[in-house]
Amino acid sequence: MNYRRPDGPVSGRGRQQPPPSRDDRRTPPPANSGRVVGGRTGGRRDRHEPETERVPRRDDPKPRPAPRTSDARWQPRPEPAPRPRPRRTSRPGLTGAKTVVAFLSVLVLVGTGYYWNRIDSFTDDLITADVIDAPPVEKPADGAIDILMVGMDSRTDAQGHPLSDEQLAMLSAGVADGEQNTDTLIMIRIPNDGGPAVGVSMPRDSYVDIPGYGQHKINSAYARAKNDALARFREEGVSDEAKLQVDSNQEGAKKLIETVQELTGAGIDHYAEVNLLGFYDITNAIGGIDVCLNAPVDDEYSGARFPAGPQNLAGVQALAFVRQRHGLPNGDLDRIVRQQVFMSGMAKKVFSGDMLTPGSETLDKLQAAIQKSVVLDQDWNIMQFAQQMIGITGGKVEFKTIPHGTIDLQTESDGSAVEIDPTEVKDFVSGLIAKKDDDKGAGEPQPGGDDSSVDNSKTTVNVRNATDRGGLAGSVADVLGAEGFVKGEVDNADPRDSTVVRHAAGEKDAGDRVAAALGGNVQVEEDANLPVGSVTVLLGADYEGPGASGSDSAAGSGDGLSGKRLVDLSGGGPARTQAQQPNQGGCVN
User: Which end of the chain is less packed: N or C, by CB atoms within 10 Å?
Assistant: First the structure.
């Protein structure tokens, strides 16, 4: 049966219109119930809250526009027509730690074949915002889609309502002095060629050009534009506090998108935002994520107080884990590694397929958390896009960090910042697509050359350590990477005596090439459950091939997960410009 659900009207940042039988959930509170996020309210600062950069109004503002007559923002709702029954489409269409989890959760709703009438209800209640303009740059030739995911250090919810004192205390957030900074910035590039998605992290203190404001830390772009818009809307006579927050947040998001586009050269297609409370609820819903720390931490600012070693974190503890930067050897860079490791754990857990089944309590909690805390751009058909994400990437996301120089750049007005060369960043981002194009054009072996690297680049190898030798899987993964294979997951497995290489159905050649790179003295077998282009290596107690000593591991030289080396703009200075990466046990600073 074919049914169609028409798109409900969207007003600014709000929910799609529900059917007439539902209560109107977007009724704003009385005007005196809101708290201005863009300016000082006179509230006390929690002793755990560090001093944050106060965001000034722009020095040379543009001429103020005439009062808006358009009703594009906060229109009164027309009487809705009865909604036809939804249509299930058989054709799949076009998917910080505080951001990716929401979309991984949405993907699972589709991937598990959950009831479509439930999905229809899910999308009705998503909060949306009109923040995407036409990209100012040419899109990648392969049709890649770029998504900006933002974790907000916000003391309001997605509807513009202030968090209660109890919620602030629970989150160790304190009462912020007009703070609306973006704690987490990750651009997800989704290729259209079946390759893995790539998450590109941008340090919050990156010193970049913010259009209209000059050079400042990138995490202040949102707040600068929001504060200007907030003052302008007040002068236009808007008095409803929830409306002021929603509309000014929308202006902040637009400026952040513009800043990221100028920095990376990428055209942002979609936008997603989640706040502190949302991250708390979502991580609780999925039962937390397993992480590992190299050393114990006790940070009064973030509330991170953890022992060394493996542990499961959810809720407040998970939030503290991804927020901490004080007391870490490399500050924000170490925090980025934590966020990447945490998101990788989320992806692995969600896509395992074991945690979510139709009608489960976990699924209900996850849906409720996403609906009340995540903001999407209004033109994003998230369910249709989720189908494509599963189809073309299998949910795999490879995380990287933009190239940077010193993390202690002294600025005139913003304190210590992270040095950024925009040219290097643009080259880095464009290379994420160009490398795939180059690989496609390199199918013909060169005269007198060896085409093994071309073949190997099409095979992703997951390496799992089934021994008690620490660092073995990481070392072997580095050996295979040097042979041209794409690094996949590197983790541990249940103990076993023998080493085995498992390949996808009909791809024995790929398995043989991996086995040859490991010395040839390993068993090769087919695994029908593996996706095309993938090989899994289980390292048993008998493994004595390349990398067996564990001394070839390149831990500490990469971007956190992919093993790629960061670009060092400091002129060969000390390794402080690079964060220590997870060791074989997955432990981080």
Answer: N
| Angstrom distances, CA of residue 120 to CA of 3, 126, 525 | 11, 10, 43
pLDDT, residue 2, reads 36
Alpha helices in 183-240 (DSSP H): 221-235
- Rounded CA-CA distance 382/366 in Å is 16
Residues 399-430 as b or e (16 or more Cβ within 10 Å = b): bbbbbbbbbebeeeeeeebbbbeeeebbebbe
- 204, part of any domain: yes
414 phi, psi to nearest 5 deg: -110, 10
Dihedral-angle region of residue 246 (phi above 0 means left; psi in -120 to 50 means alpha; beta otherwise): alpha
In 307-459, which ranges are E strands?
Answer: 309-313, 374-377, 397-401, 409-410, 416-417
Of residues 69, 83, 76, the one with CA closest to residue 14: 76
**Residues 565 and 558 sit within 8 Å (Cβ to Cβ):** yes
Please name the residues in contact with 169: beta carbons below 8 A apart, sequence gap of 6 or more: none
Inter-residue contact 299 to 327 (CB < 8 Å): yes
- Beta bridge partner(s), residue 525: 502
Percent helix, percent strand, percent coil in the chain, to nearest 5: 30, 20, 50
pTM above 0.85, yes or no: no
Closest CA relative to residue 474, chosen from 492, 452, 458, 447:
492
In whole angstroms, what separates CA 136 from the centre of its chain?
23
The structural domain count of the chain equals: 2
Residues 502, 374 share a domain: no
Phi-psi region of 347 (alpha: psi -120 to 50; beta: other; left: phi over 0): alpha
Question: Same structural domain for residues 381 and 490?
Answer: no
Instruction: Please give the Cα distance from 220 to 222 (Å, whole number).
Output: 6
Taken as a whole, the chain contains a residue count of: 589
Give the pLDDT of residue 262. Answer: 95
Task: Check whether residue 480 and residue 354 sit in a common domain.
Answer: no
Within its chain, how far is the Cα of 15 from the centroid? 23
Residues of the chain under the 70 pLDDT cut: 1-125, 134-143, 154-156, 158-160, 172-180, 193-195, 347-360, 363, 382-396, 433-455, 549-586
Contact of 221 with 148, CB cutoff 8 Å: no
Interior angle at CA 94, CA 93 and CA 100, nearest 5: 130
Write the DSSP string, 227-281. Answer: HHHHHHHHHTT---HHHHHHHHHHHHHHHHHHHHHHHH-----EEEEE-HHHHHH
Predicted pLDDT at 533: 87
Q: What are phi and psi of 352, to 5 degrees?
A: -65, -25
Evaluate whether 563 touches 535 at the Cβ level (below 8 Å): no
Domain ranges, residue 537: 452-553
Smallest CA-to-CA distance from 215 within 414, 428, 421 is with: 414
